[in-house]
Amino acid sequence: PVIELLGLMQLIVREADYELASFLEQQGLPPFYALSWFITWFSHDLSQFGEVCRLFDLFLATHPLMPLYVGAVAMHSQRSQLLEAEEMPMLHSRLVNLAITRRATADQLAVQ
Q: What is the pLDDT of residue 48?
């Protein structure tokens, strides 16, 4: 079921940022970059316990796909770095190393 849910990532990104979604398709990038986001709820990427707690609160209180929605918002917030990736391996690396709260706090991600 997780792989099927990851298949929705492209559709979610398309709603948040059509240009970025088209770029991902052109690069032929499968949605496996979002696997750890969904499985760990971003806790492996965050160093501040308070941010982890806020995201966990959000994910427990909302739709089961919220980790993918938050991932799409984080991707959109860092779209310029992603669009600059020249090859699929570089794009994949940037996505799996995406600093989820680089441009927004957990609370800001939740309302976008």
A: 81
pLDDT in tens, 85-103: 988 899 999 998 887 766 6
Gap between the Cα atoms of 38 and 70, Å rounded: 10
* Statement: the pTM of the whole predicted model exceeds 0.90: no
Whole-angstrom CA distances from 97 to 1, 16, 60, 61, 67 are 24, 20, 24, 26, 16
Q: Which two tokens stand for residue 76?
A: 């959109």
26 contact partners, CB below 8 Å, separation of at least 6:
none
Among 46, 44, 26, which Cα is nearest to 91's?
A: 26
Contacts of residue 83, Cβ cutoff 8 Å, sequence gap at least 6: 19, 20, 23
Q: Which amino acid is at 3?
A: I
Of 98, 33, 41, the residue nearest 64 (C-alpha): 41
